[in-house]
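User: Please run a holo structure prediction.
Assistant: Happy to. Please share the sequence and the ligand.
User: Here you go; the ligand is iron/sulfur cluster.
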Amino acid sequence: MNEYDSNRILDLTKKINYTSTKNIEEADCYVLNTCHIREKATDKVYHEVGRVKKTFRYKKKPIVLIVGCVAQAEGDILLQKENYIDAVVGPQSYHAINKIILNTENKRTKINLTEFQVIEKFDQLNLIKNSNSNISSFLTIQEGCDKFCKFCVVPYTRGPEYSRSFSSIISEAKQLVDNGSKEIILLGQNVNAYNFKNKRLSDLLYSISEIRDLARIRYTTSHPKDFTDDLIEAHNQCKKLMPLLHLPVQSGSTKILKNMNRGHTIEEYLEIIEKLKGEKPSIKFSSDFIIAYPSENQDDFEKTLSLMKKVQFINSYSFIFSSRPGTPAANLKKIDTTIAKERLSIFQKVADEVKKEYRKGLVNVTVNVLFENKVRDTNEYFGRDEYFNSVIVNSNENLAGKIRNVKIDKCNHNTLFGKVILEDRQKDCAA
Ligand code: SF4
């Protein structure tokens, strides 16, 4: 979502004649868009600001703005501790960035803008064309969260759940496709909680899939509690919807899910998985896991291992629990570090095995790839298959934006390598 926000910030600042530069040394304004989800996020901000300071030691100081969730959570402290920062701007206030930049150009006061003005933000953004022209583009449809999982900062940094208007999303999706996007990834902290005047995520999927030159749709991140039957059915009915679903579970133990305030049991989670497989037998899953959440015992941990083996998640993101200041879990008694590290290592070994087996099974298989870009200084093209696996092929033809069948020759942990199947070369890319 920060990538989407950063692009929108760039679109906004064009109005006051700012543009992006790859050369940091010539920047007049430095916008650091921050994420608060992982540990040491604030330290990273000071580190980055330190780098800017060093770069500009003998030059005119650029305007330095800290935006995003760290600004929201720790704005006052940042301004007090680091005088080099000119303003902090929360994720629901960045539509005001031009005023802030102009204020700072005129050497006015330091600003802390961290209100939850999400309606105003999207009203402003809807007036400005999305100029992003990536082959695969993000599109935010929903923000914020009302779930209050005990470990998570999002409800405090992004605010309550908010769904953008149906028509503004369709219009932005059309802009992205006009710009050249072939794939749209719909974003939300609780993307499947989307509800605008009773229009649901499934309605959006059907409407967006009608955009002629759009080939692929994905959405992330969904919550099991909001997985309704209409959405499950859309996985069968909506042909442009890709067959990989990222569905965070965090733990395989219902006891831990309850302690986390996730709002569902493991049986309910598995029921969703089964229903989805019933609608779309080729569907695969990825997930997030928190290992060694306070109160997790060996039995709970083994349930998480069993879940991994049962569902065979083709990708997983796992971390040892780390507390976020201000969340209810922050004061809970932590699991001993040695045990926590040992559990993470065991879990990741099992997850790696599952992934390795899955990827081994792809060798000599033909996959359908949307190519995104040429790898710099080579004849190689990078793309993704339907399951979001990275694929690289050699080609003399410009493959960017094209969809091709690729026979996979080999793979490593992160990438599949293969050859474009010859008879596909002349085909048009449009779905
Ligand atoms: S549902 Fe997701 S975003 Fe909301 S509180 Fe839980 S983990 Fe955070």
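The radius of gyration is 23 Å.
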